[in-house]
Amino acid sequence: MPRASPLPWSPWGRPGVKTLVTAGVFVTMLWNLRCFLSPSNGSREDSKHTEPLLVLVWEWPSKQVPNVSGDVCHELYGVTGCWLTTERQLLHQADVVVFPHARLQPGQDRLPKERPPGQNWVWVSLESPSNSRALAGWNQTFNWVMTYRQDSDIFIPYGKLVPNRSATMNIPAKTNLVSWVISNYHRTQKRAEVYKNLSRYLHVNVYGKANNKPLCKDCLLPTTSKSRFYLAFENSIHRDYITEKLWRNSLLAGTVPVVLGPPRANYEQFIPADSFIHVDDFNSLEELAIFLKTMNSSRYQQFFAWQRRFSVKLYTDWRERICTICTAYPHLPRGHLYPDLQSWFNS
User: Fold this and answer.
1) One of 87, 127, 234, 287 is an active-site residue; which one?
2) Are 42 and 170 part of one and the same domain?
3) Which residues form the Fucosyltransferase C-terminal domain (predicted)?
């Protein structure tokens, strides 16, 4: 038996339910349904199941919930056969339910009271293990994980380099040596220790709430682009945990990232080896400071060679991230539950 239509306003709905629609809405609905049922690379590989994949976001990951009604995956990102919703009354019709970890606190009472057979649940987090609380309570709960980790069932990085044949090298004019934008400064973090010791040997222009110099949203890139180098220091060090500090604040801004995070080899899985400087490349922070202060112009320009082949793509819209579930769906494992989510995430 095919499952009920995921469209809550379907004029042929469940028996005994009267639905009133205007002629215009009815025509629009039929047109959207036609688009959903058309073959596409973004659709599921199950020819017997012709309905769109219904993905229910139990709670939206960010405070601002955008409009997710309609065929947003197709309209915005070219992913067809994918229907997103935040309407919890569609739980029993949903193929996939998405649970952002930040919204799951304090515990199991935030989950649905029952789980329809065959439905897959996705655990979502962009935070590192150091900043993810209460993972031990979610054993045998989720079928798939969706994180910045490359070994996730659904991989959602903060950004990536995409091939660009028409790309050219563009280095913004520089007025200072090093900058750093920091909002949550804690002395116990390694990045705080590294900054404190590095600043003994060179001046760092520090911005953000932690330094009482907040930058407006449109001011960040113009500010960091004026620096020759940017401290892309992660708040914690974990495999694949490479955030907007690298992608947006540095590479997109047109400055050279000085990174503190996972080992260099891990960064090189994402960006060219000659596009960044790793703190671990040096025997001391004094040696790093000398390297930055004495670099000549020709050596500096070599760090931007990647711009001739690539451009930076940022992932900032949660709608785009969640739409990737539909793209990945045909290849995801079935009948699997993570027995120990905390052990997996900390591995």
Assistant:
1) 127
2) no
3) 172-344
User: CB within 8 A of 134, min separation 6: which ones?
Assistant: 104, 105, 106, 107
Compute the average pLDDT of residues 234-249: 98
What's the pLDDT at 67? 85
Q: Which domain holds residue 243?
A: 161-314
Predicted structure pTM score = 0.84
E strands along the chain, which residues? Answer: 53-57, 82-85, 96-100, 120-125, 144-147, 154-155, 159-163, 176-181, 204-207, 227-233, 256-260, 277-278, 310-314
Interval 157-190: pLDDT, tens: 999 999 999 989 999 999 999 999 998 889 999 9
Same domain, 93 and 210: no
Within this chain, do residues 178 and 145 fall inside the same structural domain, yes or no? Answer: no
Is 51 annotated in the active site? no
Do residues 122 and 319 touch, judged by C-beta distance below 8 A? no
Residues 226 and 173 in one domain: yes
Per-residue pLDDT band at 108 (split at 50, 70, 90): low
